[in-house]
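Weekly structure sync, notes
Attendees: PL (lead), two postdocs, one rotation student
Agenda item 3: pending single-chain targets
PL asked that the sequence for the first pending target be pasted directly into the notes so everyone works from the same version. It is reproduced below exactly as submitted, 172 residues in total.
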Amino acid sequence: VFAGIGERIREGNDLYLTLKKLEVLSNTALYFGEMDKSPGVRMRIGLSAVTASEFLRDELGKDIFLFVDNIFRYAMAGMELGAILGKVPSELGYQATLDHDLALLQERIQAGETNTITSLQAVYVPADDLTDPAVVSIFSHLDASLVLSRSVAEKGIYPAVEIGRASCRERV
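Predicted structure, written out during the meeting:
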């Protein structure tokens, strides 16, 4: 299952054509809320993809791989919705319900009675600030992370993983 939250239409089309060429499209569910859609649509894409994953896991007995690109845009859509609804933002502009909004999606990505949902999520880090409240909230739900670094890429090292910022925690 692919959740394209705030994707560019061109990127979504490229993904579709690649999956079709690889003949895996029939085993794939694609959900897109492009950049030009309203924040409500972009938020629903993440929730819709998780709902589809839960259905496939629980009703069809499948192990699911859920790829979310980009979970930060889900948080941004929540911030935009809060502003539209006139909710008072936190000091850094995020909605007061940021942690709750992310938990509504993230906590559903888990094992069921017999099958699992495994997720890989792209996280945009604004201004490379890992202390950004949305980034901190997102990372609190992840079991492992790899940080791609501009400074490592500038040295010509690819993949540009910053080893010192990689993390993994054991699930109990």
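Discussion points:
- Strands lie at 2-5, 30-33, 64-69, 117-122, 144-145, 167-168.
- The chain is about 40% helix and 15% strand.
Action: rotation student to compare against the earlier draft before next sync.
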